[in-house]
Amino acid sequence: MENTTKNDSVKVGELEFPPRKVWMKTYGCQMNYHDSERIMSHLSGMNFTKTEEQSEADLVIFNTCAVRDLANQKFYSHLGETKKLKTNPDIDPETGLKKNVIVAAGGCIAQTEGKDLVQKYKQLDFAFGTDVIDNIGEMVYRAYAGEKKFTVTAWDRSDNYSIETKITQGTPQAFVNIIKGCDKFCSYCIVPFTRGREKSRRLAEVVTDVKRLVEYSGIQEVMLLGQNVNSFGKDNGESLGQLIMELEKVNGLHLLRYTTSHPYDVTDDLVEAHANSKKLANHLHLPVQSGSNTVLQRMLREYTVEHYLSLLAKMRKANPEMVITSDIIAGFPNETEEEHQQTLQLLKDAQFDNIYAYAYSSRKGTKAARMNDVLTDDIRGRRLREVMDLQLSIQAEIRRGMTGKTYRVLVDGKNINKGVQKWQGRTSCNRIVHFEPANPEQDYMWNWVDVEITSATALSTQGTLIKEYGKTL
Ligand code: SAH
Ligand code: SF4
Ligand code: F3S
């Protein structure tokens, strides 16, 4: 249905789409970043290119996150600022006409609040949920056809979840969604409401998809994505462990990661995959949330601290190089001082390499939001600081052990620190490593290199280059 005409416009249905610019802001988790890439790939077929300058944009899209209060506040404030785009439209230099900027909000806030947002914010033209990403073209078409103030938040009711991964970045790394939704309903969490029920892709489809990415798009590193990837394939008699061992056979794929995992669903075949796969990263992100069994019960997490620690032991036995990271929520409703101390003890026992720690944030519609909570923001703030301070000292100690060892990294960026240019990459165990180039003129971007670590602290790791492999291994 698309045809390029002589004035560089693309015809879509009845409308001409001249070259236009889209500005997109993504909040939240990797799933959202993955969705944004998908949105971008659909829009490029409608003659949109990306801009980093909001003032230049014809189309402004927010891909929102609802998981904590802060992410919500950021979005509402950024959305508020777009009012000026509408009240003071620029003159389009090409047509000499007033530029009609379209503003849209998608993602997790839009899924549950879409209708209210569109009503409340005059400048918002349409809102769309998390399960209609692939219909973005149709929505943008409707907006340019003149339709105003609509909301699309339908759930995909089909039995199957079948897609082909879209990539737009031109890098050797790709996100590949393998499961969507979440059925866990942890008592504090909004995600099951914003992302709907769990649905997995079929194993064979994912393998074909990854082979295609490796062969035709130069992908060498894949991150398998889902809110709970450990549930992958449950309804189809398939599993994440099986998928990993199939992807192991894909020539040209060098590194395989996955996120996020729920401890309840870590199966023996996944542990075995960590022992047997050479491509699987030496890293597991396994959110624990709390070190207190009573809090874990109130969170409806379905495991105990003892079970969690036994999983870590199994994983470390399967792969002695394994590095484990986690998430902690400080100040869950009515958490006692003793329960908080149990979390500090868990940090000592688990020896995480890094954690993401958050103060509990009440989410409307969740079970925890209905609990009669006596904790204050001050208590939550103090406990969060204690969690982070303790973790930083543990992590400094763990990372000191990196000194003198050699790690292979795929270079993914460079930065200048105190006038010195350094390149950076991520180890298989998910630590960021900086190194100074042997030759300042050489471009190391997306090259594989071996780096020997010269110094490592809780938050930064420096090394020297000892071997270069070029763009592929
Ligand atoms: N599916 C993933 C996590 C999704 S949300 C999992 O289960 O691990 C990412 C993290 O945000 C969670 O692990 C949790 O630590 C935090 N989080 C979720 N809801 C929260 C809330 N209401 N308040 C504070 N932190 C929260
Ligand atoms: Fe939220 Fe729990 Fe699902 Fe993770 S597993 S997304 S924390 S409900
Ligand atoms: Fe946020 Fe939605 Fe991800 S709530 S964390 S963007 S699933």
TrEMBL record:
<comment type="function">
    <text>Catalyzes the methylthiolation of N6-(dimethylallyl)adenosine (i(6)A), leading to the formation of 2-methylthio-N6-(dimethylallyl)adenosine (ms(2)i(6)A) at position 37 in tRNAs that read codons beginning with uridine.</text>
</comment>
<keyword id="KW-0808">Transferase</keyword>
<dbReference type="InterPro" id="IPR058240">
    <property type="entry name" value="rSAM_sf"/>
</dbReference>
<keyword id="KW-0479">Metal-binding</keyword>
<keyword id="KW-0411">Iron-sulfur</keyword>
<dbReference type="InterPro" id="IPR020612">
    <property type="entry name" value="Methylthiotransferase_CS"/>
</dbReference>
<dbReference type="Pfam" id="PF04055">
    <property type="entry name" value="Radical_SAM"/>
</dbReference>
<keyword id="KW-0963">Cytoplasm</keyword>
<dbReference type="InterPro" id="IPR038135">
    <property type="entry name" value="Methylthiotransferase_N_sf"/>
</dbReference>
<dbReference type="InterPro" id="IPR005839">
    <property type="entry name" value="Methylthiotransferase"/>
</dbReference>
<keyword id="KW-0004">4Fe-4S</keyword>
<feature type="domain" description="TRAM">
    <location>
        <begin position="400"/>
        <end position="467"/>
    </location>
</feature>
<feature type="domain" description="MTTase N-terminal">
    <location>
        <begin position="20"/>
        <end position="145"/>
    </location>
</feature>
<dbReference type="InterPro" id="IPR006463">
    <property type="entry name" value="MiaB_methiolase"/>
</dbReference>
<feature type="domain" description="Radical SAM core">
    <location>
        <begin position="168"/>
        <end position="397"/>
    </location>
</feature>
<dbReference type="InterPro" id="IPR013848">
    <property type="entry name" value="Methylthiotransferase_N"/>
</dbReference>
<dbReference type="InterPro" id="IPR002792">
    <property type="entry name" value="TRAM_dom"/>
</dbReference>
<dbReference type="GO" id="GO:0046872">
    <property type="term" value="F:metal ion binding"/>
</dbReference>
<dbReference type="InterPro" id="IPR006638">
    <property type="entry name" value="Elp3/MiaA/NifB-like_rSAM"/>
</dbReference>
<dbReference type="InterPro" id="IPR023404">
    <property type="entry name" value="rSAM_horseshoe"/>
</dbReference>
<keyword id="KW-0408">Iron</keyword>
<protein>
    <recommendedName>
        <fullName>tRNA-2-methylthio-N(6)-dimethylallyladenosine synthase</fullName>
        <ecNumber>2.8.4.3</ecNumber>
    </recommendedName>
</protein>
<dbReference type="GO" id="GO:0035597">
    <property type="term" value="F:tRNA-2-methylthio-N(6)-dimethylallyladenosine(37) synthase activity"/>
</dbReference>
<dbReference type="GO" id="GO:0051539">
    <property type="term" value="F:4 iron, 4 sulfur cluster binding"/>
</dbReference>
<dbReference type="GO" id="GO:0005829">
    <property type="term" value="C:cytosol"/>
</dbReference>
<dbReference type="InterPro" id="IPR007197">
    <property type="entry name" value="rSAM"/>
</dbReference>
<dbReference type="Pfam" id="PF00919">
    <property type="entry name" value="UPF0004"/>
</dbReference>
<keyword id="KW-0949">S-adenosyl-L-methionine</keyword>
